[in-house]
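Q&A log
Question type: sequence-to-structure
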Amino acid sequence: MKRILFTISALMLGLTSIHADEGMWMLPLLEKMNIKTMQEEGCRLSAEQIYSINNTSLKDAIVQFGGGCTGEVISANGLLVTNHHCGYSNIQQLSSVEHDYLENGYWAMNRSEELPCEGLTVTFIKSFTDVTPILDKVEKNIRKKNKRAENIEDLVMAAKEEKENELLKTVEKENPFCDIDFVSFYNENVRYMIVSKTYKDIRFVGAPPSSIGKFGADTDNWMWPRHTGDFSMFRIYADKDNNPAEYSKDNVPYQADNHLTISLKGVQEGDYTMIMGFPGRTNRFFTSYELKQLIQKQDIAIAARTIRQEIMMEDMLADPKVKIQYASKYAGSSNGWKKWIGMKQAFAKLNIIGRAEQEESDFTEWVNGNNKLKAKYGEALSMISEGVRKGNEVTMVFTTTQESVYRIELAKMATVFNNNVKSVLKASDDKDTLSAMEDGLKALESYYKDYSLKTDIKEAKALIGFYRENIAPEYYLEGISEDFATMDINAFVDSLYSSSVFTSAEKLAKAVNERKFDEIFNDKALDFVKAYSKVIGNALTEMNESTNLLMNGRKAYTAGLLEWKKDEPSYPDANFTLRLTYGHVKGYSPKDAVTYKYYTTLDGVMEKEDPDNWEFVVPAKLKELWQNKDFGEYAMTDGKMPVAFLSNNDITGGNSGSPIMNADGQLIGLAFDGNWDSMSSDIMFEPDLQRCINVDIRYVLFIVDKFGGAGWLLEEMDIVR
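Response status: OK
Response body:
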């Protein structure tokens, strides 16, 4: 495989002129691979201005927000903006029935009113270093010295780990307060060392009410035309030396290395755009075998989540407290659920699997035409096919379990408690059971805050029923009843919840205070956890062999594709590392006689208004501003208020909150969604259909200033008018 690595490095450096809007490009390779074309398309920056390890660059204004989104710094004092749906769980945690920031929005009117967000972090990227040649040299030496060793692969792995640890120690000394991670690209063919810095004191500055930030909710999710003001604002705090620190009242606003300038000049169709962010996961090297399995897994998830979401929504609409408690849980479930529904439709409409099969056929023909190629890549597809076949049954078992009984909250809380208790007991040599129990109680505080017993009971009955109906008898849960196949599920759940000490914080605390440790450790909820954990554990064990086949097959197939398509643009699958995508402002035509403009306005919000549907309620103040055309400097030249616009940048989950910038690197909006017509985009980029939906920065500032009355925040921004 070492020869394949050299081939990939050569191919990546050899691509110097690429014309494509497709691509989630690696920042260290922009100079070699992209900048010429980017500038031809309209970019007025150099590669060094975008990514530099020696000087301030655009990358220094971009953060990974909360581990799953992107945000950007927009002032010298650490003010950052991201999507409303990215800040949603933090806003929910800060909300109560008395102070419902999801429903009513919130704006700090000075820094003393900025609210600490427990557990929220943001991460800056300091540098990427390709360590593939170093590790490749290690592998070469080990193989040379141990030609006849039966455990040669183990020796290679150990030697590479030793070299990475050596590199890590050196780089840690040079980068205080930083984290160092080794990350693979191109299905384990290329390895990078990434240095990052994570800040832990993040405070909520403001967000519009959900009637703006989540306008359209599930109905409009993934859809165009879109009218959602999907943004929220936070501030990074640091210690007096500007270094990361846990929350303290003595911390001060982070003094940014760089922050984005904001442009109010607006956008026109054809304008150059680029997005930097942390795309989460794509599978553009997947084979037809893997795609068929993917759809099968997602069908299970769709069915299970439909049941769970219907229960959550029913209770959320009936009770304001439950609505707050389950808002983030519902949103987290429904986003993937709707995406997967759209993906299945797109697979059929765009013949995704058929196109993958054709590519595999053409690849095989190319490989078979050369003996050297056959030696390197001839078994790649058969390994993947066999890996999928061997692991398919247990993969579906794992998915069914994870999407049903594993989601029951009582069981999850029992698991969290039990794991925390065991951890403390291990540290104290089993000497301090009471302290361990108290630690477990503390770990569950946030869970109980957002827990509705009646909702969980409903979900438990439905999800256990789903599991039993969709799993083979050999995977039935053991040890929770005499016969899982025939047990009365409703009666079982009622008995489980009436007897368990984990159904409320008060009940558990009483058991702890009365030192009923045996009763806690023998709780029926833990028996239930053990039952499904056994199924999951056995499934994972059985999946090991197939996983190894898939990893080896994917590595070889990816390397083969890169060599076969050496004259075509190449970028690795998304993996939550910082990337750049460039493109243009652009509308599209999804079908015959239908053409979409590239932007929407506040007029469309009013057209969608439905006071009887929570998804389309319009705040009275927003309607008043619209009626009076009180848009200030944020309106377009025709006097209308812009809301969102389209571009053909290549994004996926994780890019939410990413800055979309103009040719000068100035902020013109925030990426927040993809479009329904290209829901297969994680697998194949569709240039005629795939679009990124962005909230216009003019709408963001209009809401902050005119609607929220927080114009003081604009005073610290650099705004180009």
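Response note: The CA atoms of residues 262 and 719 lie 5 Å apart.
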